Amino acid sequence: MAWWQEAVFYQIYPRSFFDTNGDGVGDINGIRRKLDYLEALGVDALWVSPIFPSPMRDFGYDVADYCGVDELFGTLDDLRSLTNEVHARGMRIILDWVPNHTSSDHPWFQESRSGRNSAKRDWYVWRERRADGQLPNNWIRAWSDESVWTLDGETDEYFLHCFLESQPDLNWDNVEVREAMKETLRFWLRLGIDGFRMDVIHLIGKELDVDDDPSLAALSHVPLNDVPRTHDYLREIRSVLNEFDDRVAVGEVYLFEPTRVATYYGQGDELHMSFNFASLMTPWRAQSWAELIEVTEATHTNAWPTWVLSNHDNQRLASRVGETPARIRAAMLLLLTLRGTPFLYAGEELGLPDAVIPADRVVDPGGRDGCRAPIPWTKGAFGGWPSEPWLPSVVRAAELSVESQIAQESSYLVATMELLTLRRRHRALRRGSLESLDVRGDVLYFERVLDAERLAVVINFADAPAELGLQNVASVLAASSDDEVLEPGGYRIFQLN
User: Fold this and answer.
1) Residue 165 resides in a domain
2) 462 and 334 in one domain?
3) Do the domain assignments include residue 166?
4) Which residues are known catalytic residues?
5) Is the CB of residue 399 less than 8 Å from the CB of residue 380?
6) Distance from C-alpha of 38 to C-alpha of 280, rounded to nearest angstrom
7) Are 35 and 41 in contact (CB under 8 A)?
């Protein structure tokens, strides 16, 4: 199996991870400073959210230079040092790559908008006014009910932006754009980066002459876009990664049905992995999770699944399922025992909820500040940061800090470390098939099987105790308690005979 199939990925939102220069914003050297922690935690690969030069209107997802490091985070040499140190510890590192759009500050767009005859005019998507005065189509941009089209006063044409007006969409139908973007991948691959998380990769192909269904006209176009030509472009991207040894492409395919997501693996010639966003939205019910697991297994027979419970764009797990310790621990167990590659969001191992952000501290255009609050490292002022972080801390930051939890045997952090250790010890949890999926009342049951090793995973989703009633148990590998019955939110992992 490939390294990325067995790995546990750990997403770092660098602004919020750790600050070393006292400006209140996390940086690359902050990640370096915490590598001992990450190694001890037991994760295998780091996914670092964007560190490219950017005006930060969308906090790095508006790229002004694909081949550099924003001075806010450090230097290119800092990133080289981080990459080398990560590799020296036997870990991997991937970067966020944003192929659908650039910043309006990017030199490409500045040249494109300079005139209708610009050499780079067709690098972005431009459309003339329609004779009837209507916009080119009825698509709605993300985070608002506004059009994806903005009229440029200098050239009297509309340009496309599926996100902010300051994030114009690249025209991937232009071969020059594709070649330029492939060179940005090569730049980082030559530096030693192990791969990329590819932001809204399903958006790069578009059918601009077709309106969405009128009944969907009030929805952002982003989760509606699913165009055949995108798969041609993905094969070109995959060919670049194939020029280098052992690299990985992880797609943010922001579609909600696993059946559609699975198509972006192609025939093993497109993405290596794609996020299964349904796992971010599934209610905390045994039957709901069983149905998601079943459809994921059925649609990913020739594709490797992924599982994610939190990220920088969505409500944190602890806030979504309720700040109930048993549920949070059970969800972590689920994440780390399903067949596929788990992605753990920084702070998830601490059971962090979303922070409460006062109106005067809100900065994100998409309302996502709460899930991006800074990681509390110590019980001291500012959670161990050298100055006040860029966003407020979570409630109970001192109690949930790394310093507090590492000393408590019953903490979220210690439980996560134990589960990661268990995953490393048992090949069936990393490589095995998933069998015997069942729901017994409010208890979810499945088995992970590899050769002679057979493990049973049992999770009680109910608010009441449940009988186990298992046979052929050889030993208990992990348990939320020593009770004879499965307590509310309780879990067990059994070695079966």
Assistant:
1) no
2) no
3) no
4) 199, 243
5) no
6) 24
7) no
Whether 390 and 456 map to the same domain: the answer is no
- Give me the number of domains the chain comprises: 3
CATH number of the domain where residue 479 is located: 2.60.40.1180
Amino acid at 266: G
Three-class HEC string of 293-330: HHHHHHHCCCCCCEEECCCCCCCCHHHHCCCCHHHHHH
Strand ranges of the sheet holding 9-12, from the earlier edge strand across to the other edge: 273-274, 248-251, 195-198, 92-97, 45-48, 9-12, 341-345, 306-308
Does 167 map to a domain?
Answer: no
The CA distance from 34 to 26, in Å, is 12
Pair (322, 449) in one structural domain: no
**In b/e form, how buried is each residue of 26-47, taking b as 16+ CB within 10 angstroms?**
bbbbbbbebbeebeebbbbbbb
Sheet holding 149-152, edge to edge: 126-127, 157-160, 149-152
* Of 492, 108, 165, nearest in space to 337 by CA: 492
Q: Residue 439 — φ and ψ, nearest 5°?
A: -120, 125
Inside any domain, residue 381:
yes
Shared domain for 188 and 245, answered yes or no, is yes
User: Hey, what are 89's tokens?
Assistant: 């510890």
| Distance (Å, whole) CA 167 – CA 175 | 20
One digit per residue, the tens of pLDDT, for the chain of length 497 reads 999 999 999 999 999 999 999 999 999 999 999 999 999 999 999 999 999 999 999 999 999 999 999 999 999 999 999 999 999 999 999 999 999 999 999 999 999 999 999 999 999 999 998 888 889 999 999 999 999 999 999 999 999 999 999 999 999 999 999 999 999 999 999 999 999 999 999 999 999 988 888 888 888 999 999 999 999 999 999 999 999 999 999 999 999 889 999 999 999 999 999 999 999 999 999 999 999 999 999 999 999 999 999 999 999 999 999 888 999 999 999 999 999 999 999 999 999 999 999 999 999 999 999 999 999 999 999 999 999 999 999 999 999 999 999 999 999 999 999 999 999 999 999 999 999 999 999 999 999 999 999 999 999 999 999 988 888 888 999 999 988 899 999 999 999 98
Give start and end residues of each alpha helix (H) in 209-307: 229-241, 258-262, 278-281, 286-299
Q: Give the CATH number of the domain where residue 43 resides.
A: 3.20.20.80
- Bridging pattern class, strands 9-12 and 341-345: parallel
Same domain, 81 and 183: yes
Same domain membership, residue 259 and residue 118? no
Expressed as residue numbers, the domain containing 61 is 3-101+175-424
Give the long-range contacts of residues 438-443, CB within 8 A, separation 24 or more.
Answer: 438/290, 439/286, 439/287, 439/290, 440/466, 440/469, 441/286, 441/466, 442/285, 442/286, 442/466, 443/286, 443/486
d(CA 157, CA 180): 24
| 3-class DSSP state of 463 | coil
Residue identified by tokens 């095995």 is 432
Q: Quick one: which of 437, 481, 436, 428 has its CA closest to 455?
A: 428
